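User: Structure tokens for this complex, please. No commentary.
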Amino acid sequence: MASVWRQYGVSMGTKSSSNRVHSNSSPKEVPKPSRRASFLSRFPGIRFTRTPPLESRPCSLQRDVVDAKPPRRGVEGDARSTESSIYRLNDQGLEWGEREGEGTFKKLDFEGEAFTSDGSLVGGDVCGSVVDEVLSLSESIGFGSYVFAKQTLSINDHPTLSALVSPITASIVSSVNALYSGSFEYTKSSEPHVVVYDASVPDVEGYRRVAFHTDASDVTFIVALSSNGGDYEGGGTVIESYGPEPISLEQGECLLFEGGKESHKGEEITRGVRVLLVGFMKRVKGGKGKKVRKSIGGAFLA
Ligand SMILES: O=C(O)CCC(=O)C(=O)O
Ligand SMILES: [Fe+2]
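Assistant:
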């Protein structure tokens, strides 16, 4: 699917890049200028000095088709094997089998406990809207940073971002609880957050990649919000004990792994902007057990 990459010259004092990403948009789509205009009017400080004509500006905000992708099967350059176990979440919990569809995860074939969603969990339109919002926010207020990735934004600091991603993150947290058999919560109130890698930033470390590290988490989730091969090239997550090849998520796909245990890195991007939704989660000790005890009025189970 063709993706559109474009650069705006933004004339304002900002520490962030002026690159913007738009992905998975068909050139035939007719933009809805009113929605775009009202979006931009919220950021009056931004002046776009090089703006393509409307017809050639397919924008994720103007898409109304959810283009969730079919499950991937052995994509070149991706470390994941074509053969793997499939888990499906349903009302009863976790099911093992070859069924496919929304809420389905595949276990990666190594000694660790890591999963990738079997296909996109998030449609391209939603991913694109989040990316648009993140890049607009970064242009107006700049990025924050935590120790590894230098360009981050906390979802909870921004109600517009939080509204866009909370349905996605709620479903991912349910999947984490089921797949890792426990009760998980975010490690900090600033979780989840967005990471932006930008190939146009001269500094490499933290801006175009992150070196091997472990997270302060029990489980980390990563959702690819921009499109690999369209919005950026390179990138991907390398989990050391899984092997040297990066796990290269398609837009909307999700990776779950034991971030505090598995040494991992973000491979350098060679072009464009790679945007991730990242959540650090910790296991709530005795979470489920405590609830059971309370609910039966102080009687203790063996
Ligand atoms: O870029 C990646 O895929 C990894 C990101 C990461 O490990 C982190 O933000 O802690
Ligand atoms: Fe990490």
